[in-house]
């Protein structure tokens, strides 16, 4: 018998794959192939092929359990109010958007069948037919109009109210067609609609604890700050999800989260600390690290309207004091790319590669600190584990400051309550920003004069005008030039230091399959539950 495979068909391949799924041993599989006329050496090739096919083919069934790193009693199933990754994961499980971003960052249709425009100002959205909410109500244009309009209602408290404000007109043309009118042209609308906050909810919804969406899972349990459980939506308009149920909760302590994975209590431990990677890697083939570099960053914020940030030379000094290379090497354990103090990452088409990071220069830093008159003072810096790797970054910056006579008093505060009590409020503090798909969204949320998350209270009339101009241009190269200049302005004028773009690392069991990178962040852009499966 030679090494060639003879009389072997696709049906035989399927038979081997099914046997693998049933748990057949390698010896049993080889005997099966010998009986089918396959030589031993060729049988190894068949097994490898079948094994790869099984690994890539979704398997139905199982209970998926995963843990994020932060939650609170303010956890919500109202997409408009979602602010933590925990909220995003749950909203992605229970609801759908009009569009979603694929792994290349390209908007794809979800609840929308098509989205068309002739002038980037008036957009026509055709909805998919046959989509129903968990309570059985069919999806209609009225649901879309309601979902989008509520972002404009101040009483809702939408986290993207400033972004949604550009949508000035909504009209249900018929049951399956919506017309959206913008105040000014914006070619990014299909991408904007892929944001987690723009999930579609049923017309007139006031009780969001039920999670009544069109998504892959039906809410069974929702306990804010504790956990949520979703069961498979048997009437889902897509082919998924693959698992029967999905439980999600938070374990704030990194070591405890990793130990829960290693002990088999969970299948995915989200956003683990670089220090935990070695422990996971030492466990052999049973666990995998899923890495994504998509624009997430932890930054140091100095409010320009408070002391000492109101002194321009203090801000300049801090920018020269931060050793970005050391932060990537030590604080992030190499899991990141050096940043240039603006939020548009190298993964984004509009990133400005000509804007070089500020060089680490303690002498220049000392010169500016002397001009600001802050040497000899004790300057509080608020840091928390709530912002990824902020404590390690703070220690590195503090050590550099001490060498030139600047005392930075790093005050560690608990994760619980950090975002409500310190972020955006303390004169000098750390933040952590999840990836956003466009420069317009980043700048609108973080740097426009009236931005809701304006971390350093940066205000520039010129910047605001450029933001509107870039948003409305249909000329791609012109937009790129404007965004490049805006990145330079942020890096040089704002009170935010972005030392690195962090590679997010989710640790998973090798039994969890189908997880891919996504530009909206780790955990597959927080939508992993719908797409992954558990190997039998």
UniProtKB/TrEMBL annotation:
Domain Solute-binding protein family: start-end pairs: 107-449
Coiled-coil annotated residue ranges, if any: none
Transmembrane region(s): 29-48
GO MF term (any one): peptide transmembrane transporter activity
Protein family per UniProt: Belongs to the bacterial solute-binding protein 5 family.
GO BP, sorted A to Z: peptide transport
Name this protein carries in UniProt: ABC transporter substrate-binding protein
SUPFAM superfamilies with a match to the protein in the record: Periplasmic binding protein-like II
InterPro entries: Peptide/Ni-bd (IPR030678), SBP_5 (IPR039424), SBP_5_dom (IPR000914), TAT_signal (IPR006311)
